[in-house]
Amino acid sequence: MFAKPNAGRTTAAAEGDVVVLLIGMRINHFWAVHHWFPVFTAMPRMLRELSKDPSRGLLKHVLLTASPRTYYVVQYWESKEKLYAYASAPDMFHHQAWGVLNRKEREGKARQHVGLWHETYVVPEGSYESIYADMPAFGLAAAHGVLPVEKRGRRGADRFAHRSSGANG
Known about the structure:
Blueprint: E1 9-12, E2 18-27, H1 33-51, E3 58-65, E4 70-77, H2 80-88, H3 93-106, E5 114-123, E6 132-133, H4 140-144, E7 146-148, H5 156-161
Antiparallel strand pairs: 1-6, 1-7, 2-4, 2-5, 3-4
């Protein structure tokens, strides 16, 4: 929980494409606790489920808040295929949670008390870079490992130019 910071400047050791999922909720009506609380507690349950089986593909996640109404998670995945496989797996909680939501919508019981959203990005190699100064592994570096910044270049342009040994170029 209280990770020791890496001294100096580091960068993420990511190689190849990077898959990032932003997923969250917005409480539209605070008084409708019975509508938004199950949504609020669903994500930690999914994250616990994923942490028990690393082969599902979730590398790391960061829980964040944008306001007292909006909560979200930044997730780093091994591949979009593993993300989609988890999302559609009938034995996983995500499938069950979406089934409940879809049923409520069909029955006219979803009453706009809570908003849901997600954005998924597959970022090709050469289209991301990172730098961390006196930070523990965080975000992309927590998901893919940490390198001294010199391994990828001191300037952002140098880090963007990095290609893994298996990349075409």
